[in-house]
Design brief:
The chain is of the alpha+beta class. The chain has a domain of about 55 residues. The longest helix is centred in the C-terminal third of the chain and has 10 residues. It is flat and about 45 Å long. The termini are far apart.
Length: about 80
């Protein structure tokens, strides 16, 4: 069986996705879809729409993990303000 490896990772490191779909982003933050989209509208998290072909009108929204991590770090000092 073919095994994918990355030369810069040792055997104990797992690859982390750079972006998460809506349902996984909700689980990651521990919030619901509505709250996630409110955070997006406020500019507190970032997302992109992934289209499988450039002529597609619709795509799949994914949330950038770095922005989710930044948001979580901002909560360390206190309670989130909506």
């Amino acid at each position: 069986m073919f095994k994918k490896t990355c030369s810069h990772l040792d055997g104990n490191q797992a690859l982390q996705p750079a972006a998460l779909p809506v349902n996984l982003a909700c689980q990651y933050l521990g919030c619901g879809r509505s709250t996630l989209y409110i955070l997006l509208a406020q500019g507190r998290v970032k997302s992109v729409v992934h289209k499988t072909h450039k002529s597609n009108v619709r795509g799949r929204r994914v949330f950038l993990r770095d922005s989710l991590d930044t948001y979580l770090e901002s909560l360390e000092g206190g309670v989130a303000q909506w």
